[in-house]
Amino acid sequence: MSRLFNRQTSCILLLHLPPESIVIVHRFLVASWLLCCLAPAATPAAAAETGSIRLAQAAQPAQVQPAQTPAAAAPGAAADAQAVEEPIGNVATVTGNASVTRNDKAIPLKVKDDIYLNDVVQTAANSSLGITFNDATTFNLTANAKITIDGFVFEDGGKNNAALFDVARGTVAFVAASVAKTGDMKISTPSATLGIRGTTGLVEVPEGAAASSPNNVAVKLYPDADGRVGRIEVNDRAGLRLGFLTQGASGFTIRPGSGGARFAAVPLVISSQQLLRDQGFVRQVHSTQNFGRRVITEQRAFRRANPGLLNPNRPNRFGQPGVLRPNGPQRQNNLNRPGLQQQPGLPNRQGLRQRTGSPAQPGVQGQPGLLNRPLLQQRRPAALPPKRLPRQIIR
């Protein structure tokens, strides 16, 4: 009854309107009817689309976590590996009692014992000690002598070889080798520093020697075993040149200077008795060098054949930055360190898998959404059946 009433009312209204208004009203009614018909049809399609999205999100595989890197080595083992230091020389001869101060304790020395950087070696009364270093430089300490190995860098064929030995007291004979010939070798004393340029020499430091003492350091130059004579440059502790020796069996004594000079190198007159004594020291150091070369070769071969056998008296340098392994390959920092995890976002992260359905992008994770999901497909809304338009009734 209501539909008939509305139909009749519409017809009555249309009869009283002009033709232009009738067309406008007809279009408005058709549009309203289409909206009412499309709303129920779109609702199932939207619901189906929402359901498929939820299904795809629920079926999406969980994000794969990066594979864990292997556990790092135990701190104790890593510290031991970093603290291992190769020796720079060996004991060639010992007579009486000699010791080395290392790791804050005195250790008795015997033939073939290792010598390390920063070692302090000394002899007791009526004792002597011969040490040969890796380049064949050799020192022979007489009774009550003391020296410190402050620096030693040697690489066969290298151009940056250097050595620094400090003679604190006693009589010490030396014969220089590769470091002095290819690099920079120095011997320091309480009042002078000596530049050694490939030669044999003798250094005497009396007990209590000091800058103000009249009985001070004596430096002497002697020929090598083959008869060649090298050169010794004599400087004060500040590096000021005091003189140099180039003639065999010659020497200086270092004394307080005059006329404002702090030190002076005074030519030394060597008596025949002193010459005989010194020649005995020189022959001894040359003999020690020959034997020391064999000891160095044997001990190097022994270490290579037994890499896991560590010296229990080796230096303990834990917590000291910048300590390098003399005469060994230097490590490169921060390269190819085992157990190092790469930071998120960096390319080529180990253990991270690419998700299927998305292009391979190194270091980039796919974001949740509608794109690149394997279970989600774009759905088109279902086609609507054609609707019959109401007939216009004109009376």
UniProtKB/TrEMBL annotation:
Entry-linked InterPro entries: FecR
Keywords linked to the UniProt accession: Signal
Biased composition annotated in UniProt, kind: Polar residues: 329-359
Compositionally biased residues, Low complexity: 304-317, 365-386
Source domain of life: Bacteria
Signal peptide (residue range): 1-47
One Pfam family this sequence matches: FecR
Domain FecR protein per the UniProt entry, residue ranges: 119-205
Region entry Disordered, spans: 303-395
PANTHER family: LIPL45-RELATED LIPOPROTEIN-RELATED (PTHR38731)
Protein name in the entry: FecR domain-containing protein
Organism classification: Bacteria, Pseudomonadati, Pseudomonadota, Alphaproteobacteria, Hyphomicrobiales
